[in-house]
């Protein structure tokens, strides 16, 4: 029984040490290179795609549909027509865009 435990410890140690020194080098170098040469360029390409798609964005014309922008109750701040996160360039009031 003691021989089996000793044998399993020796075998496990040799197996673990063999996996550790496989001759491939430091694994942190692989992940650093993946980050530098794959991760950063992929992020920059995503940013470029987002920027270019925003440049061709055209604001839709305002059509005063009756079912949109219904105000049954005024907002409790300002003049009561603008939401809390109102953007005058993208959010229309019931009468139209503010910058037109």
Automatic annotation (TrEMBL):
Which top-level group of life is the source organism from?
A: Eukaryota
Is-annotated flag, keyword Transit peptide? yes
UniProt subcellular location: Mitochondrion inner membrane
Q: Which residues form the signal peptide?
A: none
In terms of InterPro entries, this protein maps to:
Cyt_c_oxidase_su6a, Cyt_c_oxidase_su6a_sf
Q: Which UniProt keywords are present, listed alphabetically? A: Membrane, Mitochondrion, Mitochondrion inner membrane, Transit peptide
User: SUPFAM superfamilies of this UniProt entry?
Assistant: Mitochondrial cytochrome c oxidase subunit VIa
Main localization category: mitochondrion
Entry similarity comment = Belongs to the cytochrome c oxidase subunit 6A family.
What is the protein name for this chain? Cytochrome c oxidase subunit 6A1, mitochondrial-like
Please report the organism this UniProt entry assigns to the protein: Polistes dominula (European paper wasp)
């Amino acid at each position: 029984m003691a021989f089996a435990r000793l044998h399993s410890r020796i075998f496990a140690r040799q197996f673990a040490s063999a996996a550790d020194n496989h001759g491939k080098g430091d694994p942190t170098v692989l992940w650093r290179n993946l980050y530098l040469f794959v991760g950063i360029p992929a992020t920059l390409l995503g940013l470029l795609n987002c920027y270019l798609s925003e440049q061709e964005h055209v604001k839709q014309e305002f059509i005063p549909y009756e079912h949109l922008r219904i105000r049954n109750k005024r907002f409790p701040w300002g003049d009561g027509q603008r939401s809390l996160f109102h953007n005058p360039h993208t959010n229309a009031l019931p009468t139209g865009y503010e910058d037109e």
